[in-house]
Write a structure and sequence with these properties.
Elements: H1 2-17, H2 25-36, H3 48-52, H4 54-71, H5 73-77
């Protein structure tokens, strides 16, 4: 699992360094829908990625999700005894 994670990280880093457009499909779909409706794409609330950027924003989201899953780990994966 560690080797696969390292491969993903290295691949993402090489893509970033190469300057490739790593824009997600969300932005492309929003732009297409906005142009089809002759409207401007707007957001309802500022996202964390708007403030700190996508790499740091997703890192923060992963850390928070890790703490939540870690806190509830025993409740999520405990074996239930048949009573």
């Amino acid at each position: 699992m560690v080797v696969i994670t390292v491969i993903f990280v290295i691949g993402a880093y090489l893509g970033y360094v190469a300057g490739s457009e790593m824009e997600g499909t969300d932005a492309m779909v929003e732009d297409t829908a906005a142009s089809t409706a002759n409207a401007e794409a707007t957001s309802l609330a500022p996202a964390i990625t708007d403030v700190v950027g996508e790499p740091i924003g997703f890192t923060i989201a992963g850390i928070v999700a890790g703490f939540i899953v870690g806190y509830f780990w025993t409740e999520l994966f405990r074996r239930r005894e048949n009573v």
